[in-house]
Design a protein that fits this description.
- The structure is a single chain.
- The chain is 32% helix and 24% strand.
- Strand 6 and strand 7 form a beta hairpin.
- The longest helix has 15 residues.
- The protein is elongated.
- The relative contact order is 0.06.
- The chain binds 2-acetamido-2-deoxy-beta-D-glucopyranose (12 copies).
- One 2-acetamido-2-deoxy-beta-D-glucopyranose binds next to loops.
- One of its GO terms (cellular component) is extracellular space.
- It holds the Pfam family Fasciclin.
- It comes from Chlamydomonas incerta.
- InterPro entries: Adhesion/Biosynth-related, FAS1_dom_sf, FAS1_domain.
């Protein structure tokens, strides 16, 4: 000791400390006694509660080096964590890792510190400090979260050594901004954080979050794309911060965990994939964690970190990058299969990050419904390349992302196949009407490429005019019109407007028993009425029409069985099936099915040969029976022409 103090070339600092030691006297003291003698009262208090007291108050070893922070250093550190030394002391043994981080496991006198950087294990197992000596003899100790200058050297405590330092060495980062600042691989992230006004938020030591921090290579790789889609960097950066407190290795399993982020518009999922932890954003590129569990902040309840930073190898994009990406994440598997089965140009368009346009994307249910109404299987449609191409072409509005706010009622939009779609907006429901089908938007405005393209998910497949498969009618009214059911249409038009609404609704889920013109003639004859009389008798007309509407439930003939009863809007009808056909029996008449299973939108139409007369009809109904031929009277024809003109506004169907 005396030798060292007298060694030639000792720094002024060393000389000063030797003088102080001379005053302090004995070296047969423990580390704890030495720091008490040096008036490092806050450090002494911390050591006393930490559980390190026995080790640090020993005069018989183990011999170590302690970098001892001043009271001012402890005050500064706790203030940076929005706390005080007293609060730190209340953590008791939980503070041990901090103080153990100040002790290296061998005695190291100032003169023995080599010039340059030396990494030394600390009593905080697995963590090293870097002791760095400059040519002029000054020593800096670098920890994970902070660096400290040695301001007084070589206080001897039995075989141990104490050096006083001006900062607390923290085995974690004080805050996220500091983690980025002290990690060279995060300099690009740090620059982006600073230039987008997020530095202050990420300097908050109270954040309880998880940060997925893209390394410089990842940042640089994404910058051109982000610029090309004019992405909001704030949206991108906030997407890398999950709002839950921590995610560490053991919490992550092969079943994905969903994490909310500071970007309220999008979540992330995290899952194990083999030995990797993979983060899946909305955007197509997943990221792999390449360095996990970098600790940030001090949780004053547990003594552990508040936040973990995980370094990742890709920037997480909070929006879909391609239409295929959006379709795949939304589970639109049938659409994806259709695109793959079709012309390669479709696949090229949906996987092109530069694609601009609007895609109307039928859901899996939409395909199932449409395939059922087309009476083909998915395999049949996928094999029918021409019709598949015509169909897909009718779902692409090229060149512009048309968001729902840009759509107006009765607007016409063109598609890549040249099929024109009519937009109908009513009560907040948006429909796209194609020549042979009508689809409702069920999920609007799925943005792709930050608004470069947009996907609207729809509930039906759009069937264009050039489709060569026999397509279902869009509405019951269209089916009735095509089948020449002019008297029925006249009756509907003359009656309650609600009937017309029902029969022109592509979503109407029901079964219509539709009397043919001959059925009306036969029934009118039997009732001894003419058509005008029936049409003028609104009350009975309404009762009669209601007895022909089964809802909910579109019953195909295969779903009917003998003696089955089904509810109409006015009473029950009984199904009779025998060798001569399928019959529906109402209270005062029954009718035979003439043409079964005409699919119209969601509904099924069976034409019948007689009008069903329910119990509450007050006409002289005579006897019910099968149909007979008849000729419509001139008055009926007059009514029909006006009814059809009206219907033409609503109904659209097979060309
Ligand atoms: C410690 O504090 C006491 C009382 O304030 C003072 O007398 C003593 O000189 C101080 N010792 C050191 C080494 O600063
Ligand atoms: C440290 O040890 C000395 C002697 O072994 C003892 O007198 C003193 O009370 C101890 N200090 C603490 C804080 O336990
Ligand atoms: C700590 O330092 C020792 C000795 O210098 C070295 O062998 C070891 O690799 C270092 N450990 C870490 C985690 O840096
Ligand atoms: C600690 O150092 C002292 C003085 O150099 C020495 O006598 C003692 O044996 C050392 N103790 C241990 C456990 O190495
Ligand atoms: C973080 O969690 C601690 C409790 O452990 C709580 O006191 C603090 O307010 C939380 N901070 C934020 C920003 O939510
Ligand atoms: C994120 O997930 C939470 C909970 O799982 C959910 O409530 C929230 O709606 C999701 N946010 C987004 C934008 O998907
Ligand atoms: C559906 O197609 C099958 C043959 O693929 C045919 O047997 C059946 O009659 C069709 N059904 C309807 C309602 O057209
Ligand atoms: C819808 O647009 C067509 C022409 O595109 C026009 O003839 C018709 O009057 C419009 N209908 C309504 C209800 O605006
Ligand atoms: C619709 O687009 C096709 C080409 O995609 C074009 O040939 C056709 O003229 C367009 N129709 C209208 C009405 O703009
Ligand atoms: C129609 O109604 C029936 C009976 O309520 C129901 O089972 C079926 O799912 C409905 N279909 C549609 C397409 O809504
Ligand atoms: C149908 O109902 C009739 C009488 O209502 C009855 O005689 C007959 O056995 C029933 N048939 C079946 C198959 O249930
Ligand atoms: C079949 O049932 C209908 C309606 O119930 C009836 O009018 C007809 O006579 C029956 N035909 C035979 C062959 O039983």
């Amino acid at each position: 000791m005396a030798q060292r103090c007298s060694r030639a070339g000792a720094s002024a600092l060393l000389v000063a400390s030797c003088l102080l030691l001379a005053v302090a006297g004995s070296s047969a003291q423990s580390i704890l006694q030495a720091i008490e003698a040096a008036n490092l009262t806050l450090l002494a208090a911390g050591i006393r509660v930490s559980g390190l007291e026995a080790t640090l108050n020993s005069t018989t070893g183990p011999n170590i080096t302690l970098f001892a922070p001043t009271d001012a250093a402890l005050l500064e550190m706790t203030a940076a964590l929005n706390s005080t030394p007293n609060v730190l002391v209340t953590l008791g043994p939980k503070v041990a890792p901090i103080f153990a981080y100040h002790a290296i496991s061998t005695p190291l006198l100032a003169a023995d510190i080599p010039v340059g950087d030396t990494s030394r294990p600390t009593l905080n197992a697995g963590l090293n400090l870097t002791v760095s000596k400059a040519a002029n003899g000054s020593v800096v100790v670098r920890g994970l979260g902070s660096d400290a200058n040695v301001i007084r050297t070589d206080i001897l405590a039995s075989g141990s050594v104490v050096h006083i330092v001006d900062r607390v060495l923290i085995p974690f980062f004080a805050n996220v901004a500091s983690a980025a600042m002290r990690t060279p691989q995060l300099s690009s992230l740090l620059g982006a954080v600073a230039s987008n006004g997020l530095a202050a938020a990420l300097s908050d030591p109270n954040l309880n979050v998880t940060v997925f921090a893209p390394i410089n290579d990842a940042f640089n790789a994404s910058s051109a794309y982000l610029a090309s889609v004019n992405a909001s960097i704030v949206d991108v950066l906030t997407y890398h911060v999950a709002t839950s407190r921590v995610v560490n290795g053991s919490e992550v399993t092969t079943s994905p965990i969903t994490l909310s982020t500071l970007n309220s518009k999008a979540n992330l999922t995290v899952a194990k994939d083999g030995n990797n932890v993979v983060v899946t954003p909305l955007g197509a590129t997943t990221a792999t964690v390449i360095a996990a569990n970098i600790p940030v902040g001090l949780d004053l309840v547990t003594g552990g970190p508040r936040t973990f930073v995980h370094l990742v190898n890709a920037v997480l994009l909070p929006f879909y990058t391609t239409v295929a990406n959006a379709a795949q994440r939304a589970g639109l598997t049938t659409l994806v299969a259709a695109v793959q089965a079709s012309d390669p140009t479709f696949l090229a368009a949906v996987t092109d990050p530069a694609f601009r346009g609007t895609i109307l994307a039928p859901s899996n249910d939409a395909f199932a419904r449409t395939l059922a109404s087309l009476n083909v299987t998915a395999a049949q449609l996928l094999a029918d390349k021409d019709n598949l191409r015509r169909i897909l072409n009718a779902h692409i509005i090229p060149n512009a992302a048309v968001f729902s706010t840009q759509l107006t009622n009765n607007q016409t939009v063109n598609t890549t196949g040249g099929a024109l779609l009519n937009v109908a907006i009513s009560n907040g429901v948006v429909r796209f009407n194609a020549a042979k089908s009508s689809a409702k938007v069920v999920a609007a405005d799925v943005s792709v490429g930050n608004g470069r393209a947009v996907v609207h998910v729809i509930d039906r497949v759009l069937l264009p005019a050039d489709l060569t498969l026999p397509a279902p009618y869009v509405t019951v009214a269209a089916a009735a019109q095509a089948a020449g059911l002019t008297t029925l249409l006249a009756a509907v038009t003359a009656s309650d407007p609600a009937f017309l609404t029902t029969l022109t609704d592509p979503d109407f889920n029901g079964t219509i028993l539709a009397p043919t013109n001959a059925a009306f003639t036969a029934t009118l004859t039997a009732l001894n009425l003419n058509a005008s009389q029936l049409l003028a008798d609104k009350a009975n007309l309404r009762r009669i029409l209601n007895a022909h509407i089964i809802t909910p439930g579109a019953y195909r003939s295969s779903q009917l069985s003998n003696n089955q009863t089904v509810n109409t809007l006015n009473g029950v009808v009984t199904v009779r099936i025998n060798g001569t056909g399928v019959f529906f029996a109402a209270a005062k008449s029954s009718a035979k099915v003439v043409t079964p299973d005409v699919v119209a939108g969601n509904a099924v139409v069976h034409t019948i040969d007689y009008v069903l007369i329910p119990a509450d009809v007050t006409l002289n109904t005579g006897g019910g029976g099968g149909g007979a031929a008849g000729i419509a009277s001139p008055s009926v024809l007059t009514l029909l022409s006006s009814a059809l003109a009206f219907l033409a506004l609503f109904a659209f169907g097979r060309n």
